[in-house]
Amino acid sequence: MSVAFRRESDEEHKEPRFERPLPGGANLVTARGQLLIAERIAALEAQLPAAEDEAAEAIRRDLRYWQTRRTTAVPTMPPPDGTAGFGSTIDILLDGKPRRIAIVGDDEADPKSGRLAFTAPLARALIGAQVGDVLPFAGRDDAIEVVAIV
After folding, report:
1. β-strands 134-137, 73-75 pairing
2. Could you report the per-residue pLDDT of 14-67, keeping only the tens digit for each?
3. How do strand 73-75 and strand 27-29 relate by DSSP bridges?
4. N or C: the chain end with fewer CB closer than 10 Å?
5. Which segments of the chain does DSSP mark as H helices, in order?
């Protein structure tokens, strides 16, 4: 058989494993975000000794991601002047429906529970707002009304 049709190993046919992509920009974190990063690192380090081959490599890749996020973390507090900003929790009326939004870091974001990354469009619309402000969003001039900043 010709060498051209012979497979050297199964390794050459596997999909390449890329590093987890890092979000662009500053890695702003709340105090809660710092704790979540530390918890994820501890959980991955606990899994690593029992993992084998591909699972171990995936854990090491995730560990590199979270260690980088811990190293580059910039702890950030809510604005002291009472305006909406990173780390703030804001009660709003969005198209007349009440919502509570917390503006957090990328790794801490969970839109279903109202925790939006500071880079999300709604969070960007809220940053700098004060109680009573009516803000434009999604093409409407009066889509958001700021009710309270906690």
Report:
1. unpaired
2. 666 788 888 888 999 999 999 999 999 999 999 999 989 889 999 999 999 999
3. parallel
4. N
5. 31-47, 53-72, 121-126
